[in-house]
Amino acid sequence: MKKQLSIIYLSTLLVGSSIGYSQESKPIQPCDTYAAMESYHAQNPAAAEMYKKNQLILQNERAELAKNKNKSAATLLTVPVVFHILHTGGSENVSDAQCMAALAQVNSDFAAAGSDVSSIFAPFQALYINSDIQFVLAKKDPNGNCTNGIVHRFDTRTIWDRNPPSSAANPALYNGIVWPANKYLNIIVVKDIVAAPNQNGIVVGYTFKPGNFATNAVQDAIVYNFGYLGGLAARNLSHEIGHWLDLDHTFGPTNNPGLVCGVDGIGDTPDTKGNFAACPASSTNPAILCSSGATVYYQNVENFMDYSNCPKNFTTGQTNAMRAALQSGVSGRNNLYTPANLGVSGTDVNGSGICKPIADFLPSNGSYITCAGGTINMKDLSFNGTVTSRQWAAGSGAVIASPTNSITNITFNTPGVVTVSLTATNAQGSSTQTRNVTVVPVTSPIITSYAESFENTGTPANWSVINNESNSGAWQQALGIGLNG
Asked: What is the torsional sign of CA 114, 120, 126, 127?
């Protein structure tokens, strides 16, 4: 039986730290983990069976850890982290500082070190303990190269559509992004996670609990909305990491709170109905009380694994469960913190950026095509290390207004394909990014109506197929689709 916490009288109301669910103009789906898992299991019955078997293993390991090990004497477990920022040049290309601040908030949450600890509802305050799990930015990439643990990637998958026919577990969504999951915790930061057909609004994040995939599966990652990295909103990331370390929602394995009093399999979290957005006072609101027979119990409204907008704590049972998952061979979590892996992946607590920069740039309007005599504004988006100097270059007589500035205009006078490059440098070294700009001859404009049916094989006369970004898909003509005539 689940250990329950009996009601005690409190004369003071709790004041929580809102993370803003109720302040959004659109509805919020704070977490889509169980919807993603349910969709994956429905399409892959064998995976569902594997998950059930692995959950039994994890539950047994959790019980053994609770029986045989004193958490207070536990060793510190260090997890290397890499943020993959997917962007198309907009505000979703969040700064390194935002990622570091979010990780600092996560570490505060896992260390029970927040300034609001003293305001946690009394029955649960003493249950909130330092997990002795810390998350640090990786210092080496899978090839052994220097990294600051934050990768900025131009990628149209920043509009992350995990709906059918792709599904949340489609490897194509993750391919080329995720680093080995038994060496890094991968956090994919995107502009938007497209809502499912039965949803409406903003999806904050989702992941898959351990045991869904074999070790090193590309889907073993957290997908997270860029708008929730700032301030206490980053506690949503603590929530997703809780799932990644095998925690259920306090109201059970569902995305829908407030329906029934659910259970999460943790001994010291009471049966919970769950709360969305509002943070009612546990001591006074009967709507959030669950009962067992004649006894009524408090819910842990302020738990990180609830949906309330006042998350403040894990319980001791949850902490032990997360440590058990991290020390389990299920999904290879137990390799992450080993000295051998830390030697390979490295760790960088402060994200000091002591690597050479990886050069990158984009046109401000997103287009690599212009007419002869036209000008394109280029912006330096280099990452991985602080750029101390840069050099723009362009062929075919192109004129660069400011060859050493982070933003410059380039005028293209000669028709054809023109190569543009940026070299970014600091004390650790330099790298160069090269891209092509298509300069179109100035011809007489179309002054009458024009139509093109695209029904013939091949590219129509006077049309060009231009694919500038190798990692953002490609335009191509598809035959045999749709109607004719």
From this structure: negative
